[in-house]
């Protein structure tokens, strides 16, 4: 089975998300400016990311789990250009690492930003948390006066594609 990447884009001038225009994000959203050297941010983010993306299967090339370590997280973000922000969805603004249920990262350069690694713990899906994270990311992009958001996802992730389309993203070549 081959892996197909779906590229999607949202032109911020053309979209209308009422929740993104002036309203505060959901009470579950805590916006954290990413500091690649912060072990607290890295550990909190990895808690959700590794839970979602390190299912029982292992990497077919290495035979090892594809889970990230704090060091890999910091290296990945330190070597990518642009300004990073991480949005964390938590049940409480206190003790984020223990109550974290979802994350998304935004990396912006000049007029465009990329959404990366939308992750919501399986037991918290279908509660609007993913939509709240994407909406909050759109709001952050608008505040930063960016013109568009782009992302890549796997063609097999139909729920993610449907969510992005409902939020105004369109498939691009």
In short:
The protein is an alpha+beta fold and 173 residues long. Helices cover 30% and strands 28% of the residues. It contains 5 helices and 7 strands; from the N terminus they run ββααβαββαβαβ.
Q: What can you see in these coordinates?
A:
About 30% of the residues lie in helices and about 30% in strands. It has five helices and seven strands. Strands 2-3-4-5-6-1-7 form a seven-stranded mixed sheet, sandwiched between helices. It has one domain (about 5-170): Gcn5-related N-acetyltransferase (GNAT) (Aminopeptidase, 3-Layer(aba) Sandwich), CATH 3.40.630.30. It has helices at about 40-55, 70-80, 95-100, 130-145, 160-165; strands spanning about 5-10, 30-35, 85-90, 100-110, 110-120, 150-155, 170. It is α+β, with helices and mostly antiparallel strands. Mean pLDDT is about 75; it is low at about 20-25 and about 55-65. Strand 5, helix 4 and strand 6 (about 150-155) form a beta-alpha-beta unit.
Which helices and strands appear, and what pairs or packs with what?
Layout (H helix, E strand, L loop, with lengths): L4 E7 L17 E5 L5 H15 L16 H9 L4 E8 L5 H4 E10 L2 E9 L8 H15 L4 E7 L3 H9 L3 E3 L1
Parallel strand pairs: 5-6
Antiparallel strand pairs: 1-6, 1-7, 2-3, 3-4, 4-5
């Amino acid at each position: 089975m081959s892996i197909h990447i779906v590229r999607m884009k949202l032109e911020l001038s053309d979209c209308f998300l009422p929740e993104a225009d002036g309203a505060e994000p959901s009470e579950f959203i805590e916006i954290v400016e990413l500091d690649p050297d912060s072990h607290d941010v890295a550990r909190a983010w990895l808690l959700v990311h590794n839970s979602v993306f390190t299912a029982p299967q292992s990497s077919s090339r290495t035979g090892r789990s594809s889970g990230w370590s704090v060091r890999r997280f910091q290296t990945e973000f330190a070597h990518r250009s642009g300004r990073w922000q991480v949005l964390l969805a938590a049940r409480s603004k206190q003790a984020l690492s223990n109550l974290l249920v979802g994350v998304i990262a935004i990396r912006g350069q000049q007029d465009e930003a990329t959404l990366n690694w939308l992750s919501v713990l399986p037991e918290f899906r279908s509660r609007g948390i993913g939509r709240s994270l994407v909406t909050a990311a759109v709001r952050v992009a608008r505040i930063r006066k960016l013109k568009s958001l782009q992302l890549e996802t796997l063609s097999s992730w139909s729920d993610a594609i449907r969510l992005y389309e409902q939020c105004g993203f369109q498939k691009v070549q």
